[in-house]
Specification:
3 domains; eight-stranded mixed beta sheet; Nucleotidyltransferase, domain 5; seven-stranded mixed beta sheet; 548 residues; 32% helix; 22 strands; Rossmann fold
Length: 548
């Protein structure tokens, strides 16, 4: 049972904390805390179990806000249990001490009786067992079976990206302790720590593939992150940031100071600790081989931009051909169109088949004149359907040159051949003296061709990143790294199918036209109206309008 109270009013009236100066002061929510509280309130208003995953910059007060909400719920409820799990013992002690301070500074008429308290737990009850029978338990991740034997109604997962050991298993066990009921609450919050399970869970929340509501809070949302501006000239990067996020000169000055002092000049460290957008936060533990700055900026520019249309092709098919091709709009379709085909323009269409693991069947279309990515295709299963859609997509884009990677499967390439698709990539060999065509079709990724592909793609992203329109392509490029063993590949747990399709597009371009074709149209002949030219007796008479 829980008392019907206005939580925010209760918190700001009765809860006290230790501020950054060491003073005990009433807790007044700052702007990031307000944003966090509003997200919780929105889920509660829908009578949903409260499930939030929070990606944040450092020292914005989200842990403090979470503890205040949990503490308020517990001392105004009976038979409820809360769990707070942090990444290390020091943090566990800090959050426990924060909770204890809230209790000690609570007005007596609101302060419930405690049965006992120790370095890990506050139990609100009495010796007779007639008190609240509620508790707050603080724990450290890493110990065997942490929290598994409890039933929690409120769970705070703090700095999850930094949990040690098999944290995925630990968190899964903890989540199972929380009933899937309205009124329960799970908060997963963390600063970023490269590409690991917190990033996976964040991506799923953003994609709507989990019950968790994603909440991002950038450093620029905290007003106190400002310093005196002495008139220094802004770098090109700072000008871009100022324009994109409406930053003040004082905010730019604070950012520059933080990079130079706390981060020792390491801008990547600053972005991980103090991101201004989610993409900045997840810089990866490896070294991205592409220009991260440009990828992130492009991702931010198009993150809310919708494709021109989404759908797929319908068609009629027999063993040897596809006919009656027509496009249908479908929000769940496998193709995104960013630009319709232009008359006379040549296009290239590259494909990457699903190999070992969980990669998807992918395709990308580039305008061979402008190099703009104009369409993308994604199918999770069924090679025959993939081949059919690639055929239709190629026909749609003016008989685009198609090159599909054959490393794991030659089936789609053979299907296109059997259906007499008019233009497929012909494999070549380069012996450094002359280039020779082989009697083989389809792209083959080898040690040599992969190196050239990645070098070509690296230059393309550096010089022409604004031509990329697929969000998943940009995200995969950010997770494509050079590892400690020297290999250039996707970060562990991530995929590179879209990276490869874009690269193959660039590699096969030379076999497609590089000029716009002039299309001849049947001209409509405008014959003179004989009724208007009757006066011309040399050409017309009363009954015959055309004669020799």
């Amino acid at each position: 049972m829980m008392r019907n109270i206005n939580r925010k009013l209760f918190i700001e009236k009765f809860i006290k904390i230790k501020d950054k100066n060491g003073s005990i002061v009433p807790l007044k929510f700052n702007i990031p805390q307000e944003k966090f509280y509003d997200a919780i309130k929105s889920q509660a208003a829908q009578n949903k179990p409260i499930r939030l995953i929070v990606l944040k910059a450092r020292q914005e007060g989200i842990s403090t806000a979470t503890e205040s909400i949990i503490f308020t719920n517990i001392i105004n409820s009976s038979n409820k249990q809360a769990g707070i799990i942090t990444h290390k013992d020091e943090a566990t002690s800090n959050l426990y001490n924060m909770t204890k301070l809230m209790y000690n500074n609570m007005p007596e008429n609101f302060r419930p009786q405690t049965q006992y308290s120790n370095a890990k737990e506050l139990v609100f009850n009495n010796d007779k067992g007639t008190g609240l029978n509620s508790s707050i338990r603080c724990m450290t991740a890493g110990s065997s079976g942490v929290g598994r034997s409890y039933t929690f109604h409120f769970l705070h997962i703090s700095e999850y990206a930094f949990w040690p050991g098999k944290k995925h298993e630990t968190l899964s066990g903890l989540l199972a302790t929380v009933p899937d009921l309205p009124g329960t609450m799970v908060i997963i919050e963390s600063t970023a720590n490269g590409y690991e399970d917190f990033k996976e869970r964040w991506d799923k929340a953003v994609a709507g593939e989990s019950d968790f509501l994603p909440v991002f809070i950038g450093w620029n949302e905290l007003p106190e992150y400002q310093r005196f501006y002495d008139g220094f000239d802004l770098t090109e990067e700072e000008k871009e940031l100022q324009l994109m996020y409406q930053l003040s000169y004082e905010q730019i000055a604070w950012r520059r100071h933080k990079i130079n002092t706390e981060c020792n000049g390491d801008i990547d460290m600053f972005k991980q600790e103090y991101p201004i957008c989610p993409a900045e936060a997840f810089l990866g533990t490896g070294s991205c081989i592409f220009d991260k700055e440009k990828l992130i900026q492009r991702l931010e520019k198009i993150k809310d931009k919708k494709p021109l249309k989404i759908g797929l092709f319908l068609y009629e098919k027999n063993e040897l051909s596809i006919s009656n091709i027509r496009w249908i709009d479908d929000p769940n379709g496998c193709i995104e169109i960013y630009e319709d085909p232009r008359e006379g323009y040549p296009y290239v269409l590259a494909g990457d088949t699903a190999g070992i693991g969980s990669d998807e069947f992918c395709g990308d279309v580039l305008n061979n004149i402008t190099c703009d990515q104009v369409a993308s295709l994604t199918i999770e299963t069924d090679e025959d359907l993939y081949a059919d859609q690639m055929y239709c997509l190629g026909k749609f884009y003016n008989d685009a040159l198609i090159g599909i990677e054959n490393n794991y499967s030659t089936y789609p390439t053979k299907m296109l051949w059997n259906m007499s698709y008019p233009k497929q990539y012909v494999r070549m060999t380069d012996d450094s003296i002359k280039v020779q065509y082989q009697d083989k079709i389809g792209w083959l990724t080898t040690v040599a061709t992969r190196a050239v592909l990645l070098a070509t793609l690296t230059e393309f992203i550096r010089e022409s990143v604004d031509k990329i329109n697929n969000i998943k392509t940009l995200k995969q490029c950010l997770t494509f790294v050079k590892k400690e063993n020297g290999k250039k590949e996707a970060e562990n747990g991530y995929h590179d199918d879209r990276v490869m399709t874009l690269g193959i597009c660039l590699m096969i371009r030379d076999q497609q036209d590089l000029v716009v074709k002039e299309i001849e149209h049947d001209s409509k002949i405008e014959w003179p109206d004989p009724l208007k030219t009757k006066d011309d007796e040399d050409c017309y008479d009363e009954d015959i309008y055309m004669r020799w």
